[in-house]
Amino acid sequence: MATVTDHVAAPQAAAGQGAAEAQMPETTDGFHLVIDALRLNGIDTIFGLPGIPITDLTRKAQAAGMRVVSFRHEQNAGYAASIAGFMTGKPGVCLTVSAPGFLNGLTALANATTNCFPMILVSGSSEREVVDLQQGDYEEMDQLAIAKPLCKAAFRVLHAEDIGVGVARAIRAAVSGRPGGVYLDLPARLFPQSIDAEAGRRSLIKVVDPAPRQIPAADAVQRALDLLRGARKPLILLGKGAAYAQADADIRALVERTGIPYLPMSMAKGILPDTHPQCASAARSFVLPEADVVMLVGARLNWLLSHGKGKTWGGKSSKEWGGQKFIQVDISPTEADSNVRIDAPVVGDIGSCVAALLAGLGADWPRPPAEWTAAVAERKAKNVAKMAETLAKDPAPMNFHSALNVVRDIVKANPDAIVVNEGANALDFTRSIVDMYKPRKRLDVGTWGVMGIGMGFSVAAAVVSGQPVIAIEGDSAFGFSGMEVETICRYGLPVCVVILNNNGVYRGDEVNPTGGRDPAPLVFVKDARYEKLMEAFGGVGVYATTPAALRQAMEEAIRSRRPTLINAIIDEKAGTESGRITALNPTAKKK
After folding, report:
1. Residue 315's domain spans which residues?
2. Within this chain, do residues 131 and 234 fall inside the same structural domain, yes or no?
3. How far is CA 402 from CA 110, 144, 222, 516, in A?
4. Residue 569's closest CA among 550, 582, 589?
5. Residue 70 host element (H or E)
């Protein structure tokens, strides 16, 4: 590793300086040790927002050859870092200032931990002596204590010689076992600390095998295979953990060799193409309650799967188990039995587990009963035909279906493009209408269903992949991160933002029940010209009121790779309250 020299002792002594001064030993400082520690471990990109006390760190990182992507809000930078971690398997790094900036990044850190995205939030902080005595330092806050409950691990580095250890521990904690968020606290006084350059070099650690394979037990694998072999109506359910594992070829082989229908969760779409004959997405409401053995691969039985209970699974009430037997492939042994009994837990990293399951299939593995696969195919065909009828309609104004039919075609023609998706109805309709063809090409709100990931994810997806990004946004969702279109323009990223604009949250036709002058709480400015925001920063803005205009604009955006925002005007009556999770909204239940 090259020794950083731009921060060492004074240049060659000028005329008249003594020989002893000219021979001063080279030194390094905390700024450069942080940069060198990250680069040594293959981390070459930082997402963040400069300010006290980390402004010079961003300058020096860029000077050292790192890519520093500077945002307008720390939360969006944190979302970018987290999804970069999901896409690459290396921890994404978000850099923030102290106190308020740290707090802005904390939502993204907690979201990364919940979603199992490897991320490191690095924040400058106030000096310990002042914080501990509550003496009122600039942006004083005990950031380490606040971060600890919201992440996998949290570390503070007080001395320059410990920076290598701090970075190494953060990397290992972020990616080992179940991935997640890690907090690294760097007080302002750490950065200018000076130590001998050679001692600094020796203090750095290149992390060896940060996410070691965890081989499943042979008896656990056999138990799972025995249960699967005896199933009459088996189902494989793929979660985003399966996508993160990047074991795509083996997962596909497992699905195809067993012949079992599979159901991908939203961010697992594309591990196998959504058009694959075994894909049961179009028959989801049929296969979940009917299946007798369900193999979960990188998926958790949380609220997104009704906790494995209730009417979704054939139960008579929200608390009743439907009688399925579950096989769960997960790296965490404590995930099993979190909601219902797991009959065959297979604990290990997904790549190793799937490889072991494949090896155990044998040449005589039976295909699922024909009556089961035929029933799934029949229900799937019926629902696909029904959807085709809906998509063929051309209402005026557009609705979600007619607009997303265009997006569906654009993604099919550009399967390497990355789709970022958030909203309520915009999320639900996009997930069910737009097919994906390759893994890790669909990025969305994940486990928390959090709003605001759109522009942060889009920036990171473009930076990490170099591929075009198509961000499908509800007008409400876009509001959380819309200012980052300036970031998209500043870095010249190939991002096409499509806002499905129906003038409000869920829909834009509510009225104030009192008849007063204030608008209803869920209604926005009518006919808002969002595309002008992109134009303001030098990008392309398009106001589209028809599918033809939307199609033309999207095709041009993909061709030109210019930052583009398309304000797609849809019927303000389109949409339902809370999208497809109305049951979780107690107010909506009463209506």
Report:
1. 218-377
2. no
3. 36, 49, 48, 35
4. 550
5. strand 67-70
